[in-house]
Amino acid sequence: MRPAIFRLPAGGAHLGWHHKSQMKIWLDGKLVDQSEAKISVFDHGLLYGDGVFEGIRFYSGRVFRLEEHIRRLFDSARAIILKMPWTQEEVCRHTCETVAANGLTDGYIRLVVTRGAGELGLNPYLSPKPSMFIIASTIKLYPDEFYKNGLAIITCATRRPAPGALMPQVKSLNYLNNVMAKVEAIQAGAMEAVMLNEQGYVAECTGDNLFLMKNGTLFTPLISDGALDGITRAVIFEIAGNLGIPVVERSLTRYDIFTADECFLTGTAAEVIPVVELDRRTIGTGKPGPHTLRFLEAFHQLANSTGTPIGSNDTA
Fold this sequence. Notes:
alpha+beta; D-amino Acid Aminotransferase, Chain A, domain 1; nine-stranded mixed beta sheet; 8 helices; 17 strands; 26% helix
């Protein structure tokens, strides 16, 4: 029996920030009330999407894979020639400080670095000093029922930009491509959409990496096909090694998804979530598969037992 596609309410907003009043935001060196957390209208991050970001999760009082996220943030900054005035250790410390200041033990961090305020025009050298802010709150990307029953997703027409146009490994503030792909999913009544590259190969979804199980082997798209080298993606590789499941990175098409035994998505916000239907075609049995459930369980065990303690000064 075909699973029903989740219909979004009018407006389509299903991702919500849940926070207490006057949360504390880390902004350029100090913690301020959210009402005081403001950036200039001349900030090039706002004007041109010139900046980078990271989404990070914390569980049971520990920030999961903090060092890996901050390292990727610095790599993204270097790729767009954005000189960071902070060290990686300082950013790790400020991230933990922000979580602690909001009294949270489980939640989500959005860390943003903009080019900073400058003169009008594309020239990045007109912005003398980058700006950074850190938000620590809670987030729920998908309702619990979809982790139990699986997602029904679509293929969108919006293509992933070619690496020669915008390097997919840079988590830049220009996310319009992903936003428009998400709009297609919402308008189709789906929660998520598969994005193809210009050659027709699967790149990723609007905010998640994609994995397939076929005949006991785990498959995922090549980074060169437009996939982000996700932190959670790397965790799945580790878990697969522990479970004795071989992993193959190769070019994938919609055919591979249609004929897969199982499919699931991964991402910092999404964690690990099953997919049971693509374009109204059932994947596998139409229910989350046994391997997917093993990955989901193993991920939760790892996320809740490892990480950088929020109250610790040791971020190494």
